[in-house]
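Researcher: Before we compare anything, I want clean individual predictions. No alignment, no superposition, just each chain on its own. First chain goes here; please echo the sequence and then give the structure tokens.
Model: Echoing the first chain and its structure:
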Amino acid sequence: MNDQVTAASLGALILRLTLGVLSLAHGLVLKVMTFGLAGTAGYFESIGYPGGLAYLVAFAEIAAGLGLILGLLPRLAALASIPLLIGAALQHVGNGWVFSGTGGGWEFPVAWTVLLLACALIGPGAYALGARLPGKLARL
């Protein structure tokens, strides 16, 4: 294990933390605390998704957020989040580009998807707890 902190590893850390906070906020604050899981399930049903999917998405966003923030399996967390963001982008594609427009546009979920891919490719960066895991798990 290389404990040297470089500018690149700090940049990866900043990317990982930012994506982790966004994911945790989206899952915990928005879906659980603001709308509630039942409300989120109702919204999912109103846009044509199964209501039960809301529970899975909220759990995945919270788990991925924590994994990214802590640096535990961050590549896996980032990759597992990409399908969620593709689903969000597909829901917003008919609303145009600007996310602040009525119904929200698709640029935010698409940008988030690309940043998650970059995070998965770059790796966890500095101060990732997962670096202490054994063998191949330390690289996920």
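Researcher: Okay. Second chain, same rules.
Model: Second chain and its structure:
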Amino acid sequence: MEAGADPPPGAGPPLCLADVERAAAAVLPREVWDFIAGGSGSETTLDANRAALDRLFLLPRVLRDVSRVSTRARLLGGPAALPLAVAPIAYHRLVHPEGELATARAAKAAGVPFTVSTLSSVPVEEIAAVGGTVWFQLYWLREPDRALELVRRAEDAGCSAIVLTVDVPWMGRRLRDVRNRFGLPGHVRSANIDTGAAAHESPAGGSAVAAHTRQAFSSALTWSSVAALRARTGLPLALKGVLTPQDALRAAEAGVDAVVVSNHGGRQLDGAIPSADALPEVVRALDGRCEVLLDSGIRSGVDVVRALALGASGVLVGRPVLWGLAAAGEPGAARVLELLAEEIEDALGLAGCDGVTAAARLRTVRGDAPAGRAPVAGPAV
């Protein structure tokens, strides 16, 4: 089956994100699947992201009126139908001809923000023209003026927030891509920054995409760069890739509006802490100074409620949306967001929560916490 083709007769609609993942894996070329699914190094952190969420258990409350459950939230100053945004992912046209246009339309229909990657395969202006809430993810480039020009383009296009990725001085060593000598096919290009042939022609024993990003991205991104960006834009600003309370506090002092607790989906430093494990300390340190979002490993509505219980205002969801796009185009991406909406409402209600705010008062425990150790917990109601 080709990417974007209809599912075989009788297959039925996917009932969970794992169904969508299997459908995408069945249609994508192996090297493209590896590019999307893989992590860095031995993929320890990639696997740990899921393990951290799976060992986090909710303590549901009972005898609460959940006859009406709201999934609405506010993210980066704006309303959202769900406490989630579509994470920035490069090169959607790798998996479907319409690329980001299709996923942006699905996000608009679902009422959730869509984050345009600097490395999107459709220009930011065309994606923003789809409508809905659109954020722009920025990689700091070797020429800072070019990075700030991208911010201007995003503002002019109507994007409502800037998300600066801070954990990529260069791309992590992703062994699947190295073994595949992965490069972009001819029909896919970075539409916002000129890559020439760099991202298409693999060096011997390497990844063309990694080689290109090493050429394009700045490894000198510092707090002074954040200050320059903060001074340049009046849009809400989030830093994505924060894992320590020290960096989170520094971000708040720098005037950012949100931090995204993220290890880049296990694609940067292998051996970095799982994002869900880092979240509670970041939330405690910030104590409301700015918004906190969680990224990396979200695969269900229960995961979203887990993040809310740990103090996040919402999450970013990446790979699953791309699986949906690969499996069935725009309807596939829309189905992923529909499933998450159903699962979030279900999890909230069954946990005794009538909305997102109530979920923040749920307590949680670690399933593998040794006897005598205090569980990771939110405040009791």
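Researcher: What stands out in the second chain?
Model: The domain at 17-366 is CATH 3.20.20.70 (TIM Barrel). Additionally, The chain has one domain: 17-366.
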